[in-house]
Specification:
Layout lengths: L1 H24 L5 E5 L6 H17 L3 E5 L6 H8 L7 E5 L2 H8 L11 E16 L8 H10 L5 E4 L5 H13 L4 E4 L3 H9 L5 E5 H9 L4 E5 L25 E9 L4 H16 L1 H9 L3 E2 L7 H22 L5
Parallel strand pairs: 1-2, 1-3, 5-6, 5-7
Antiparallel strand pairs: 3-9, 4-7, 4-8, 4-9, 4-10
Helix pairs in contact: 2-8, 2-9, 4-11
Amino acid sequence: MASRIMKSFVAAALAAFVGAAGAQDYPTKPIVMVVPFAAGGPTDIVGRTVADGMSKALKRQVIIDNTVGAGGTIGANKVAKAKPDGYTILLHHIGMATAPALYRNLAFNPLTDFEYIGEVADVPMTVLGKKNLPPDNFKDFVAYLKANKGKMTYGNAGIGAASHLCGLLLMSALETDVQTVAYKGTGPAMTDLLGGQIDFLCDQTTNTTGYITAKSVKVYGITSAKRVSSLPDVPTLQEQGLKGFEVVVWQGMYAPKGTPKAITDKLTAALRSAIDQQAFKDSMTKLGASPVGHDKASAEGLRNHLKAEIDRWTPIIKKAGVYAD
């Protein structure tokens, strides 16, 4: 018995030593960052921007892998099942907090199947209409929605995506119904909005600011509590009478469970270096997003926020009776 215990202790100590030794040289090859949404979408934009900064900090390229589908759960599950060596990581948004309530047969557990690297940025959303939609302001938009109940078409990036959640809460707050058109990412949804194939969309400022300033779409409001500097003339929905309505999409970075702490610490340090770079700050500000502080760009900060967001959104989603499978 004592011999077996000693062997187990030696094996564990050896594994820890090997892991620590490997972490000293990490990284020795490119790192794949899985973004579980379409290229050109808001999460993809944040991912590519932070990947560039992390590549500089790590002196190894961070490559984006867009593994899309099922509200981001396919890509998240891919990372959960990946080898825990630090060469496959995940950038996901608020969908990590809503997935447990939306998917009754979720293949992973956000709280137990990942190591945490840190939060990246907070991104408000905008409510947009196609360019020739008659209403010119939010008050008239609400009246138009109710007058055309069940006829208006609303695009989103699929069940569980931030755009789906925003639309769900907006329709609940306005007590009206629309025809929902689901896409594989908000990039394709935006293309159809610009082409007039759908009537409106709720999308993150990282993807919409350029279209708004170019007046390619109509904008009816910001979903954050305060206006954003990149769109100072666009009022919040709360300002326009939708009291308490706030949807801010936060982005977090994860690694597979079992990834050595020495490696996740290096990734956290690289993340902090990236978000501290002026180029990243300028890019996020231009797009209406806010880089987080170091307290949030940490394993503990992300873990605590994820747990709080799961506790916040689960009862809301269950009350709405919405399920993805």
